[in-house]
Amino acid sequence: MINPLIRMAKVLGKASSAAMVLAMTLSCSTTKAETEQRWLSFRCPDGRTVIARFEPQDDFVNMRFEDRDLRLPHVISGSGARYSDGKTTLWNKGDSVFVEVNDKIVVRDCMLEGKAQG
Fold it and tell me: Which class in CATH covers the domain with range 40-112?
């Protein structure tokens, strides 16, 4: 007959192993999801580029423009998607974006280029 304490230790050992495997699996899937998010490049008529990574799971866009990295929250818009921190605004509609800074459009008609960047 197996001592009840030994039996409990074996059960707990198996449970903690299962928990560890689950944690490792979830950790791997998070990493995969992060890698699947891609930066999109939008070429503007004046030659400048707006780079953006949309994060719909938390309603933000990460944006790179003119040597600045910004994280802008999604805000209500009548048409398209609008992200703004109150100073800088990125508008996205279809395959194009435009950027406003202090309520002035700084680039417009920036069109999505090729494939997403990793």
Answer: mainly beta
